[in-house]
Amino acid sequence: MDDEMLFPIGVVADRTGLSVKTIRFYSDKGLVPPSSYTPSGYRLYDIDALSRLELVRTLRELDIDLATVRRILARETSLPEVAAAHASALDAQIRSLRLRRAVLQAVAKRQSDPKEMDLMHKLVNLSQAERHRFIHDFIDDTFGGVDANPAMVELLRTSMPDLPEDPTSEQVEAWMELVELVQDSDFRAAVRRMAEYQAAQRTEGDTTGLHHALTETVRDEVGRALAAGITPESAAAAPIVDTLTARYAETFGKPDDSALRRWMLERLEVANDSRVARYWQLVAAVNDWPPIEDLDPVFSWLGRALRTRVGQ
Fold this sequence. Notes:
Blueprint: E1 7-8, H1 9-16, H2 20-28, E2 36-37, E3 43-45, H3 47-61, H4 66-73, H5 79-110, H6 114-124, H7 128-143, H8 150-158, H9 169-182, H10 185-203, H11 212-228, H12 238-252, H13 258-271, H14 274-287, H15 296-309
Antiparallel strand pairs: 1-3, 2-3
Helix pairs in contact: 5-6, 5-9, 7-10, 9-14, 11-12, 11-15, 13-15
């Protein structure tokens, strides 16, 4: 072997950035043995050994264990396979760190005690399937066993909260509040009453599904009244009520009479629970959807206006 192409360990250390002690360690482990020895027994390394040492250094900096490094050097496993496996592991670690950061930011913001912090950490680190189970259990408990509006049940099941890989502290807080809400027995009882009411309406022939267009009409009409300062009990509210009762009559195929107004009021009293609106606002916050408009003031106004005129 050409002595000019052999390097003593000190030169190898300078060229690879590894310490002499580390190079000796890798040599003693059989990862990169010396290419030759001087007559005095000092280690010498050729260009190929330098390249292998640089590869070992890079692999170790990427936190690849020595056993795997040995297999790569021996070509028992390919570098791309190892890289892909470690990239996947790093993805999981990065996601865990991001979730941890979001939890800590939320803890600092909320002034949480240790108990709440522990609960937050556990809830955030659940798998997607485990997080969805909170919602499915809520739906099963509130809508199970009754022939409620199937479009509503489908909407609930397909609008699952999914924390992103890099959630904000606000999304963590929203997820915490959502879990608390769907486990609240009073809220579950209220939603169960809504489901039973829907089932009773379906028994009487109501198969109209969801009513997005009707909701938009109520929002627009009552929104203008609220903006104009029209109170629900005033005479100025009467034309608005007439417009909306006509639209309800058209949507549900009912006569536009006093019975319809009583039915509308009953329907609003069953359905107009601010916690339902809060549920959808929290789902939107977790999923980073556009904010959900709070329609509670709108339907509260309509309920008061109807109550004033029922029986008139």
